[in-house]
């Protein structure tokens, strides 16, 4: 490929109750709700975006919350863990913070120069907080419920579970431009660019695991960055030429997207960095009002009637 990604853009998962989702990701994890909109393919449900102060690519975890949807099953053919980056000295604080809020956490695991703390959100989605000794220079959202010195800096990595690694690794290298940077038993790490936080994917080979079922508590897709629309067009043409079954370019209002599956089964997306989340509301007011794309505005009254009301906490209110 003549183009390569610079790292993760976002991860999108499926939740159940939207209010419970908002409370956990804002109050417990301290992220910012940077956009409240709807699933453009199913406007009867929200699409909630959480990230840093501006919702920069590489900071974003997003959700489709379907209250009546069944619970999914994590397994092969999915992204089974979404990891966030936190400061090197903050793992102990996070373990205490989560435990005090009733979140069941695992033991801190050390691997190479990283420490990782794992837990699940209220819908069972597997989350990890990872601290690297070299730190993460990205600025956090500093007006949330977590003190800035401990706050999440952005995405760290995702883990793809597969029954065999070769074909998945081939697509990561040949079609996304990643390179392998590590191997530990049945775990293979690939990186974009210099391989810092937000540029990593682990491929976990678990032939004994069942196939995953995408529903509540599972990841729907993993998105990788493209700098602009011109690059994305070129990327799509090259993917098609290589025989990849890829969608047309779709307008997601805040970025443009193409979708395809890696051979292990996980749905991947290539999303543009632009135009970003401040195109339809001021930066200081991100996420607090329901925003619809122009083609759905005529249906606003109907859409608002279908959506449950969200009680959003006041920004700058801290738990201490």
Automatic annotation (TrEMBL):
InterPro entries, A to Z: Extradiol_RC_dioxygenase (IPR052537), Glyas_Bleomycin-R_OHBP_Dase (IPR029068), Glyas_Fos-R_dOase_dom (IPR004360), VOC_core (IPR037523)
PROSITE patterns per UniProt: VOC
The VOC domain, residue ranges: 7-132, 154-273
Taxonomic superkingdom: Bacteria
SUPFAM superfamilies according to UniProt: Glyoxalase/Bleomycin resistance protein/Dihydroxybiphenyl dioxygenase
Record-given protein name: Glyoxalase family protein
Originating organism: Kibdelosporangium aridum
Lineage: Bacteria, Bacillati, Actinomycetota, Actinomycetes, Pseudonocardiales
């Amino acid at each position: 490929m003549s183009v390569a990604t610079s790292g993760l853009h976002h991860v999108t998962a499926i939740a159940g109750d939207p209010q419970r989702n908002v409370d956990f990701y804002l109050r417990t994890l301290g992220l910012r709700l940077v956009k409240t909109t709807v699933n453009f393919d199913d406007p009867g449900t929200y699409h909630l975006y959480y990230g840093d102060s501006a919702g920069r690519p590489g900071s974003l975890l997003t959700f489709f919350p379907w209250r009546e949807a069944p619970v999914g099953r994590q397994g092969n053919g999915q992204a089974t863990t979404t990891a966030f980056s936190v400061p090197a000295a903050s793992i102990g604080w996070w373990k205490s913070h989560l435990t005090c809020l009733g979140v069941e956490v695992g033991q801190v695991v050390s691997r190479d120069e990283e420490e990782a703390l794992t837990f699940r959100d209220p819908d069972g989605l597997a989350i990890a907080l990872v601290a690297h000794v070299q730190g993460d220079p990205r600025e956090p959202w500093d007006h949330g419920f977590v003190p800035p010195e401990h706050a999440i800096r952005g995405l760290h990595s995702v883990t793809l579970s597969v029954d065999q690694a070769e074909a998945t690794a081939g697509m990561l290298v040949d079609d996304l431009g990643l390179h392998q940077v590590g191997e530990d038993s049945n775990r293979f790490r690939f990186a974009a660019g210099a391989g810092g936080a937000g540029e990593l994917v682990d491929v976990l080979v678990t032939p004994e695991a069942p196939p995953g079922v995408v529903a509540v508590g599972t990841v729907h897709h993993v998105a990788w960055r493209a700098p602009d629309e011109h690059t994305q067009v070129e990327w799509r043409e090259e993917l098609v030429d290589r025989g990849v079954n890829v969608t047309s370019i779709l307008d997601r209002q805040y970025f443009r997207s193409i979708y395809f599956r890696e051979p292990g089964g996980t749905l991947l997306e290539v999303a543009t960095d632009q135009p970003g989340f401040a195109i339809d509301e001021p930066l200081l007011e991100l996420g607090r009002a329901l925003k619809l794309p122009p083609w759905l505005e005529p249906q606003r009254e109907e859409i608002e009637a279908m959506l449950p009301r969200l009680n959003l906490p006041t920004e700058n209110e801290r738990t201490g």
